[in-house]
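Subject: Interface between my chains keeps coming out wrong

I've been trying for a while to get a sensible model of this assembly. When I model each chain on its own everything looks fine, but I need the whole thing in one frame so I can look at the contacts. Pasting all components below, labels as-is. Any help appreciated, I'm running out of ideas.
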Amino acid sequence: MINKALLKEQLKRFWIFSAFFVVGYILAGIVPLHVINAPDAAWREMSQIRALLNILEMRNITIVFTVFMPFVAIMAFYPYYVSVRAATAFYSFPISKHGLFCTNFVAALILTLAPLLVFCLLLLVPISYNGPIFIHDDWTEIILFNPQIFPRFYQEPLGVINTIPVVAGFFMRTALGIIFYLSVFLVAISLSGNKFVSMLFCGALPLVPMAVHGFVNLLGNIFVFGFDSQTAAFRLFTTATFTNPVMLGEHLSPVPVNVTNGNWQLWHFLLAYAVIIVIMLAFAYVFGNLRKIEKVGESVISDKFKKVCVFLFSFCGAVLLAIIMGQAFLSIPMLYVGAILGFLIAYLVGQMIAEQSFAIMSKIKSLPYYGGIMLGISAAIWAFITYGLFVYVHTVPNLQDIHGVIISEQWSPPGGELLADWEIIDATIGVHQQIIINRRELVQAGQTFEFSGFTEHNNDSIRITYILHDGSELTRTYRFGRAFAEESGIQALRSTPQVLIARSWNVGEVPEMEALVLHLSERLEVHDLVTFHTTQTLAITNPAHIAEIVPLIQQDWLATAIADRNDQRNLEEQRAEDGVWQHFLDISANMTTNNQVNWFPTLDFGRSPLTVGWLLEMGYLE
Amino acid sequence: MIQLKNVCKKFDNHLALNNLNLNVKKGSIYGLVGVNGSGKTTAIKHIAGVFRQNSGQVEIGGLPVYDNTAIKAIMGYIPDDLYTFPNYNLRGLRNFYANLYRNWNENRYNKLLKLFKLDEKRRVQNFSKGMKKQVAFILTMSTMPEVLLLDEPIDGLDPIVRQQVLKEIIADVAERQMTVLISSHNLKELDGICDSIGIIKNGTMLVENELDSLKSDLHKIQVAFPSENSKNGKNGENGENGQKIDKFANFEILHKETRGQIELLVIRGNEEQITAQISQFSPILYDKLTLSLEEIFMYEYQNEEIHNEIGNKINLEEKK
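Reply #2:
Try treating it as a single job with all components included. I did that and got this:
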């Protein structure tokens, strides 16, 4: 299966690329951990931790290597897919087609994973030098990309043991990402016969899931809400994050990614990666075997697939120009004009690329055929949007049809307690109708990504899920400004105790516990850097004491939550002050039962008078 | 050793090989000739296992070639347009070939390297076209192939190198019974080394035979007949009964040229019979000239085209 001579040669030819990426990883990943311009040691330490977490959370520029390395590897190791001379040489060697495919893939694998491995080993050095990393569950923004793979039960003192799994988890996730892109680019290059088109395919194929998602979302938004407040550009901090379906799914997933109970949810995504990788590799292998060498040099290896590609290219051109012209003129008719023009232009350009020639007048005959298909699809989309076929319904349900509602925010874990109180339901319907009526003021859902680091301070969101009497579910997510949240009654709705409690983990219904472990932490914040240092741990195992303190924690939490809701802007303004060293004391609680850990929401020490008072009175605190 | 049986290959709408039959005996040198676009390179690529035929069989030693690593391990192929790993020097390529081919012969490699005087450390991509062909030759011959396929290998080589290459090939054929298939437009050179010739046209084998048999089958003669014979009607335009006498009846004439009284002809047939027939007409000049491979090629091609033209005319008349 693997030809040793070829493998050895390929590794020898391209080791320099691996070395280059190792240097890249060091410069982009390791050096920033040590070259920090900070006014004092605490800030420096926090910045280092932040930089390290950025790497582990895949928010560092090194994520680009996850895409770039596989691209370079595939273009380097499979030249015989796109070069006639290379094809003649490789297929005349005493290596089977199967052997060529497998050997080159293994070589690509080794040369792309080796730099990552070196990088991960190097990462352990600053971690060992600086001390262990504690992944505090209050850092909700990192939960989305929780770097921990292996379950842990104690936060400390097993810091070093936590650290190695963290880096190992990062290696595993990133390695899967690299293998994913290797398989995607292999499919792309096996469909094409020349370098230029293969690079086009490599660029386009990973964007398909995001493009489909964006297209469906955008169409719905345009036809439901109109053009105002549209933000046509996606702000992507890490392009890699959104160029594969698994990470996009993780972002959009209804599955809670708060992994306080053992990280097992992340395995779903890793399994999805693995399955997609296997499918892609199978496709690439089949295409590689079926492709005829005489097609090398042509744009696409199959004539039928060439027609499909031309159509898809024309379709994308139609959508793009439709959006541009619709946005520019804020008009649906101009959107249609843009679609027609875009289709025509993209069709001609697509044929030129497919035929590798400017002489494509003979292809004009096929235009009505492609145009007919385009019209059919457009009519289907129009009917879907206009008449709310199948799924997309933008009306508000009637009160009598609703069994209950679940209210959350766009970035919070979905799910939560169902609210069946009719006053809450009525208020929710009222808020929803306000959103529809005032849709021009809305920023459309899904077009800006908060964790990108470019958060707009005025952004707010709500996610409403209706559970109807017939058992069906309807979920709508909206983004809007803070002022609208107050004027429309959204803020008031979210500040009601029932809604606050329903949205919180374990506040409403506290699970049974054998022990309540309180960690008193010192939280330091400057800019958006946060670090925790646990100063004291208290364990309460007396059931009577647990029964006394839990309601106090609930009350303190609720009071703080309501105050924070009403005072969100002030809190954010405080946070936004540059250079101000903010010092908080937090209480976080672990409720443990049979080695299962349940987290209780963190309390602000300074704003938890009932809990702190009780701890002092009972002698747990001095 | 090498056999193509009714091989067909179509590229889109173009039939590149049309029921091609080709047979190369073990230990012989086979010259494959044809005009540009006749299918030589396509045929060779099928034998090299690069292309897969649409129908028919391509075999070496009775075994199918396509995707057969065992056959490719004993086969050497030098294409017209060479590919080498970018930024590699000859030494690097040598290491790759030595690992890839189990029959690699280091002594052979060193000997050829010395013979062609190439710099092992210089990048191959900086070599001239001729030097690149030398590189290909050194590497391929050092793998000690049992079957050698050469697609216009000596075009672009200087005469000295060309002679060295041909000498090595002939030596291997003699010593190791290596089977060689060589395509070239340089028919003069092929004339000197080939045992068999195949003339391919429009993807079909026009003529395939041993070179000696080909030459013995075709004769180029120069003949002149006395002018009084034509008055007597013995060998002139009119015979005794006024009928036209064909001096070369029963023989296929591939080419005829008249220069005054002298006629230059290329005739297919038995030499003795031809001589006997011509003698009846008491020629004043009768010379048998040497026929080169180039001339054989040209006359066979022209003859085929004339036959096709005649065939087309007959078909048209029948339709009328």
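Reply #3:
Confirming on my end. The two ends of chain B are 49 Å apart (CA to CA).
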